[in-house]
């Protein structure tokens, strides 16, 4: 996709699609190096590899320029990166915190969001969102094994609207004894319900998250659905909604055939029979791990950090941008079509060849691990914590 076909201006905001890892990393470093007043970064995984070093060095340069730097990482996703790695940032004035660092029941909750926000207080606010973390695998070219992911640069007033949300989340994370009731209020209060661009958040809600509610609402009306998700394991009711889209028009889903978490592939495959029965077209991405999170429903696009499993829909801290614009939907549907070129379609004939009893058993075990064991244990513990 040529650059001229990857950018659109919507409601006073410039949106630029960044599907390739190397370019996405260049744009991330440019965002950090171009910041004049403030930087707010939030990542599930921050790895002490080559990419992590370059991002940390860029943040230190920003501090030297007088930029206020804030970095929030997840305690679980970034558990392999020691506290000492970030010590210099903290000592030189950066605001740094791990989300839920203390071991205990709350440690099972995960902040799965990803964003880099520059100069949010100014008229030049810009934010880079998507499914990617700070690690070499997310920025390498897919020809050498880099993961396939999506980045979206948003420049304009929509980016600035993330400032109060980020600051509230950082305040909650830094405070001792923070209550989940307060965290749920942050998720609800900063989720948006009007406009062409809406920030929608997820978290450990007692019912569905604002993003989950918006997604099910959009699915209920859609006649054309394109979806790319790294983890796909919704419950039967949501599978029926996807099937209903296919009955009204067309529904297509791209799912990984390989993953850093193999049970998630098995869990997704356990849904294939129910989807194909409802005429949903299924494609498995072949070259490398696909980590993208994208839904296109008629003229509405959801893009951001959330997968399509129970943890993402009900538990994880997630952020998605809902864009209601026909031209942007056309652009993202074109991206989907491009990705199909690297996919294998799972036809009913191929499915029957694969679905031996041993494979079906393996898929069911994967489903249990992903949707029942991990989800049920974490949710029950989370909802017991005040």
Give a topology summary.
Elements: E1 7-10, E2 13-18, H1 21-33, E3 38-43, H2 50-64, E4 68-74, H3 87-91, E5 95-99, E6 115-118, E7 126-130, H4 136-139, E8 151-155, H5 157-160, H6 163-174, H7 180-190, E9 197-202, H8 210-221, E10 224-229, E11 232-233, H9 236-248, E12 250-256, H10 262-269, H11 272-277, E13 281-285, E14 293-297, E15 300-304, E16 308-309, H12 310-315, E17 318-324, H13 326-340, E18 343-345, H14 348-354, H15 357-384
Parallel strand pairs: 3-4, 4-5, 10-12, 11-16, 12-13
Antiparallel strand pairs: 1-2, 2-8, 3-6, 6-7, 7-8, 9-17, 10-14, 13-18, 14-15, 15-17
Helix pairs in contact: 1-2, 6-7, 8-9, 10-15
Summarize the structure.
The chain is an alpha/beta fold and 386 residues long.
Description:
- By secondary structure, the chain is an alpha/beta fold.
- The chain has 2 domains: 3-178, Endonuclease Chain A (Endonuclease, Chain A, 2-Layer Sandwich); 210-382, Endonuclease Chain A (Endonuclease, Chain A).
- 41% of the residues lie in helices and 23% in strands.
- It is built from 15 helices and 18 strands.
- It has helices at residues 21-33, 50-64, 87-91, 136-139, 157-160, 163-174, 180-190, 210-221, 236-248, 262-269, 272-277, 310-315, 326-340, 348-354, 357-384, and strands at 7-10, 13-18, 38-43, 68-74, 95-99, 115-118, 126-130, 151-155, 197-202, 224-229, 232-233, 250-256, 281-285, 293-297, 300-304, 308-309, 318-324, 343-345.
- An 8-stranded mixed beta sheet has the order 1-2-8-7-6-3-4-5, with helices on both faces. It has an 8-stranded mixed beta sheet with strand order 9-17-15-14-10-12-13-18, with helices on both faces. The protein has a two-stranded parallel ribbon with strand order 11-16.
- β14 (293-297) and β15 (300-304) form a beta hairpin.
- α1 packs parallel to α2 (50-64) and α6 (163-174) packs antiparallel against α7 (180-190).
- Residues 375-386 have low confidence and may be disordered.
């Amino acid at each position: 996709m040529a650059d001229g076909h990857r950018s659109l201006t919507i409601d006073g905001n410039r949106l630029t699609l960044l599907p390739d890892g190397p370019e996405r990393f260049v744009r991330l470093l440019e965002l950090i190096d171009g910041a004049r007043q403030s930087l707010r970064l939030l990542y599930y995984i921050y790895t002490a590899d080559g990419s992590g070093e370059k991002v940390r060095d860029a943040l230190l340069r920003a501090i030297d320029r007088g930029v206020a730097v804030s970095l929030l990482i997840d305690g679980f996703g970034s558990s392999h990166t020691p506290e000492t790695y970030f010590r210099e940032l903290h000592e030189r004035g950066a605001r740094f915190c791990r989300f839920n660092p203390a071991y205990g029941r709350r440690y099972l909750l995960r902040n799965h969001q990803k964003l880099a926000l520059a100069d949010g207080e100014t008229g030049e606010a810009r934010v880079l969102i998507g499914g990617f973390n700070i690690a070499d695998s997310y920025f390498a070219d897919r020809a050498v094994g880099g993961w396939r992911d999506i980045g979206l640069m948003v420049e304009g007033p929509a980016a600035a609207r993330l400032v109060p949300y980020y600051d509230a989340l950082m305040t909650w994370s830094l405070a001792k004894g923070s209550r989940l009731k307060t965290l749920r209020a942050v998720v609800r209060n900063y989720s948006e319900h009007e406009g062409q661009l809406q920030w929608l958040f997820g978290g450990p809600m007692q019912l569905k998250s604002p993003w989950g509610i918006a997604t099910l609402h959009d699915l209920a009306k859609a006649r054309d659905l394109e979806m790319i998700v790294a983890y796909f394991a919704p419950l039967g009711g949501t599978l029926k909604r996807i099937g209903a889209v296919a009955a009204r028009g067309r529904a297509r889903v791209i799912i990984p055939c390989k993953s850093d978490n193999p049970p998630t592939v098995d869990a997704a495959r356990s849904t294939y029979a129910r989807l194909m029965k409802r005429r949903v077209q299924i494609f498995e991405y072949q070259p490398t791990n696909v980590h993208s999170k994208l839904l296109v429903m008629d003229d509405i696009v959801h893009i951001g950090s959330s997968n399509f499993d129970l943890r993402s829909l009900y538990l994880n801290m997630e952020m998605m941008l809902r864009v209601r614009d026909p031209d942007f939907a056309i652009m993202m549907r074109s991206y989907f079509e491009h990705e199909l070129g690297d996919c294998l379609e799972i036809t009913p004939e191929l499915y029957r060849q694969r679905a031996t009893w041993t494979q079906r058993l393996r898929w069911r075990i994967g489903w249990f691990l992903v949707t029942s064991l991990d989800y049920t244990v974490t949710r029950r513990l989370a909802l017991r914590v005040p």
